[in-house]
Structures are given as structure tokens and as C-alpha cells.
Hints:
Layout: E1 7-12, H1 16-27, E2 31-37, H2 41-50, E3 58-60, H3 63-68, E4 74-77, H4 84-93, E5 97-100, H5 108-120, E6 125-127, H6 135-144, E7 155-165, H7 168-173, H8 186-189, H9 191-201, E8 209-212, E9 217-218, E10 224-233, E11 239-246, E12 248-252, E13 255-259, E14 262-266, E15 277-284, E16 300-305, H10 310-328, H11 335-355, E17 361-362
GO molecular function: nucleotide binding
Pfam families: GFO_IDH_MocA (PF01408), GFO_IDH_MocA_C3 (PF22725)
Organism: Pisum sativum
Amino acid sequence: MANTDTVRFGILGCANIARKLARAITLAPNGTICAIASRSLEKAEKFAAENNLPASVRIYGNYDEIMEDSVVDAVYIPLPTSLHVQWAVTAANKKKHVIVEKPAALDVAELDRILEACESNGVQFMDGSMWLHHPRTAHMEQLLSLSSSTSIGPVHFIHSTSTMPTTQEFLENNIRVKPELDALGALGDLAWYCINASLWAKGYKLPTTVTALPDVTRNSAGVILSITTSLQWDKPNQTVANIHCSFLSHTSMDLAVCGSNGSMHVKDFIIPYKETSAKFDFTFGAKFVDLHIGWNVKPEEVHVANKLPQEALMVQEFARLVASVRDCGSYPSTKWPEISRKTQLVVDAVKKSLELGCKPVAL
Length: 363
């Protein structure tokens, strides 16, 4: 039997990514799936069967029906980005809490419409940046705290990549390369994580300038397949973040953060190599030994175990916030909407820099 604080989720759409969150909702101790909707009843029924959803889950052949279901507390929206604003606003207006896949929207104007609808209706918003909910991220964050005795010091340089090899089928038919569905391409699908990580490393302080590099690759429809960009923060702690994202390279999910006193490195920051544990390494006070033939210290490796997958931890946190609003009259947390909006602002700045011929864009 579900706990009294269980949050009942409805899922809009049966995209492949929805399978992952359906599993996460099932694993989260305070979440349950109560409805699934697709544009066809047959597709929704097939999704429910393939994912072993219980017979109690209501199945709908259109999105409007799930919006009218009074039992649904929150909706998960894994639809193409071009549809986020329509259905997230609709959900919020129906007093349903919203968790949406990243990128959250096509631009900050669309995202503001979503956030305004959520705020005016008193519902929680969160995007699907699951890596932020992994306990490894909290451990790494301790090294960024200037008040910590193990702080790597003020951050000066950030390097991140999110790349993946794709097939010709993907490059021709996947929704992420279709301008009418996901016009941001790799900038939205992959760079969202790297921009998000760079902001995280800087305590969510927006960069001073954003500059896209001219090595961008687009498909025939103009959708970005590969991109490199640079974020810069001015004084008092000048920082540069270099980001490379691509549908055309071997898989990488690197994150390196270098400060005045040390550095930390992660090779799998978006999706850990293992679901039940993750690691990172950090180095303090590194110097070259005499004749520069080695280092005086080796990186220290930190292993962090987690009982639930990071996606289930994300669902658990979202459901906790929803239950607090629903059952205790709390206000929705502003933390997650603010993180999403700052990430979207930088995405917009990268896009604008490209439109200006890779000139710096001030924020």
C-alpha cells in the first residue's frame, strides 16, 4: 500500500526517456504512477505493458484526459521541447506539479511562461537534470565551499564535455535533430548538462560573457550537431569554463573544476558508470618534483554509494516538495526553477552568440 505522503504521477508521452523515469517513479519510496497518456491509446497500452505498470494505472489516448484526472498530483513531461510550454502551462493551470525533461524550453521567454504559470498556481517545477541529485554531487560541492578546510579554493577554470556517437538513422530521424521538435539540437540536449555544471561550480552565479566558438556543426535543417562555447566570469574570482558537446564524437561526460588550492575531476558526471555507486578524484597542493619528472602527490579517489538511482533520488526530492505543498500548505521551492532559468539564460546567450558570428554576449 502506498504511503500517505505518496505523490501520484501522470506521464505525458511514451518516448524512450519516459521508460527511465517510469522506473524511477516506481523505485522512489514516495512516488507512484497512476496514469499514462499518449496521442494514441494503443501506444499508451503498449508502454504500460512493456514497463510492467500495474493494472490500476489509468491509460489515456490523449494528453487532455490526464490533465482532467483529479487523482494526478504531478505530471512528468518527456515530450519534444517545442511542446513543453503548452503542456507544462496547461498542467500548472490544472494545479498539477510539473517535472519536465531538459532542455526545459526553447528559450527563456517560453520558460518564463511555464514558471509564471507554476508560481501563480502554487505548484512545484523541476527539470530533469538528474545528476544534481546524486550524493556524489553533494560530496563534490563540499570541495567548492570556501569555508571548508578541504576547499579547492576559488574556482578559476572549468572544463566539461557531453558527447555521444550517433547513427545515420539518428542524424536523419531523431527528434533531437528536427527543427520543429527540438530546434536546439545538441545545445539543448547535451550542453544543458555542461552549462548546468559550470553554473553549479560557480554557485549559480551567471557568467559575465558567453562566447560560442566558430567550430559549430549543423545539419541541413540548421540544427546544431556539435558546438563548443566559453563562459567567462569577471572579478573578484575570474573564471573560464570551456564546454564541448557533440552528437558526432565518442561518449564522454567529463567535468574538471580547478581552483587556487586544488582540483577535482569526474569522468561520468551525467550518468555514472555504475548505478549504485560513483567516484571522483581530487588533488590538493600538487607540485612538480625536482627536474619536473613527476608530481609530489597523487589524486585522492572518493567513492560514493547510493541506495537509489539518481533518477529515483530526483523523483524522491520532487515528490517530497510536492507533498509539502499539497499536505502542509508550504510554498513551492524556488531553488529548482531558478537553476533552470539560469541554465536557460546561458543557452539563449550561446545561441545569440552564434547568430552574431560568435561574438561575446553579455549577461
